[in-house]
Amino acid sequence: MSTLAALTTTGVGGPAAGTVEVSTEDELIAAVRDADANHTPVLLIAGGSNLLIGDEGFDGTAIVVRSSGIDFNDEAGSCGGTFLTVQAGHVWDEVVAASLEHGSVGLEPLSGIPGSAGATPFQNVGAYGTDVSHTLASVRVWDRVENRIRTLFNGDLDFGYRTSLLKTTNYVPGIAYAPRFVVLSVDFQLLPGDLSAPIRYTQLADALGVTVGAKAPAAEVREAVLALRDSKGMVYRPGDPDTHSTGSFFTNPIVDAATAARLPESAPCYPDPRGVKLSAAWLIENAGFAKGYGLPGTPGANITGGRASLSTKHTLALTNRGDASAADITALALHVRDGVERAFGIRLHPEPLVVSSSADW
Ligand SMILES: Cc1cc2nc3c(=O)[nH]c(=O)nc-3n(C[C@H](O)[C@H](O)[C@H](O)COP(=O)(O)OP(=O)(O)OC[C@H]3O[C@@H](n4cnc5c(N)ncnc54)[C@H](O)[C@@H]3O)c2cc1C
């Protein structure tokens, strides 16, 4: 039985009881319905870039989503612009590149994010001040509770920081009807043109030599984003262990104002509708965990024998250096989480879907 490790960017995870690869919407629905008819738990895997699967594997059917296709429709939008329908398994960065080639803008800050289009609404994928909720019009889903195809519009999806209705209705492992909504395709509404949306992120604005709020040629924004992401190990590169991760392992915590006020003045704090958003990377670094923490010759090397470490380019990424197990990644994650909690009284929570019952998150 082959393991699921090869299907994930972290390269860890045991076997599934069954694995089915699907390449069309019909096959995806059929695979889910078969599993449901047999009361078998379902794990959807597309790019595997936001999953931490335990060494024990998954006692159910792993459905590997490989549907592909992008359709542009310049006529569909009564408000102008381009509608873009993308099949769930299509590689996300190809969608961004194709939209720019088509002369449509809005996705360029999301260049270089690994994984599939269908997973982007799951955690409202975002980077550089933009997330998919800014341009996503609707998703076509298979609803496993109502047993039918439905269209969920942007306003139905309860988008928030790294969350959506798709994520909050997902319960893994071990429950036969999880996740409730299987994304079949995603519709984006983009603007025509070759100038980007206003740049919302200081580091990106600096890289482009513009002020925050200004626009820039969208193709240049894509190049700048890819370069910035590469410098942080945030573009998946098979030959570079610093990218063998789930990207950010922890979400940025949102705390109340009193908790934020107790932090040192240098701690970044951002307003958020639910309180104050902190920087998980700052908390990790200032709790004593530097880039590369856990590599041989660095503090923390004893935890996993150097098999897993913080990326040498970014403290938020937990990386497999070549022969790490899921237990190694988990041990490092819990060690960092507990160290931050000891230092600042703030608990970090994992961003990826953790498919394992062997750790107490
Ligand atoms: C180097 C690196 C950098 C990253 N940078 C970012 C970043 O900047 N911003 C960001 O937000 N994320 C980032 N990520 C995380 C990840 O790339 C995104 O979350 C991505 O959208 C996951 O897509 P995927 O296809 O790999 O999903 P998978 O890992 O295969 O699955 C992730 C979740 O989505 C579910 N899912 C997958 N397909 C479907 C479907 N068709 N229907 C319903 N549910 C589905 C899965 O069951 C699982 O719960 C990064 C990851 C890496 C490795």
Describe the 3D structure:
The chain has 361 residues and is of the alpha+beta class. Helices cover 23% and strands 23% of the residues. The chain has nine helices and 18 strands. It has helices spanning 25-37, 92-101, 165-168, 202-208, 218-231, 257-261, 280-286, 301-304, 326-344; strands at 16-22, 42-45, 51-53, 58-65, 70-73, 82-87, 104-105, 126-127, 130-131, 136-143, 148-153, 181-192, 254-255, 269-272, 275-278, 308-310, 318-320, 353-355. Strands 5, 6, 7, 10, 11 and 12 form a six-stranded antiparallel beta sheet that branches. A three-stranded parallel beta sheet has the order 1-4-2, covered by helices on one side. The chain has a three-stranded antiparallel beta sheet with strand order 13-15-14. The radius of gyration is 20 Å and the shape is globular. The model has no long low-confidence stretch (mean pLDDT 95). Residues 9, 44-51, 65, 88, 113-116, 118-120, 122-123, 125-127, 166, 170, 179, 182-183, 234, 236, 243, 245-247, 353 line the site of flavin-adenine dinucleotide (FAD).
Order of helices and strands: EHEEEEEHEEEEEHEHHEHEEHHEEHE
SS element count, helices: 9
What proportion of the residues form beta strands (DSSP E)?
Answer: 15-25%
pLDDT < 50 stretches: none
Give the terminus-to-terminus CA distance: 28 Å
Bound molecules: flavin-adenine dinucleotide
User: Share of helix among residues?
Assistant: 10-25%
Category by helix and strand content: alpha+beta
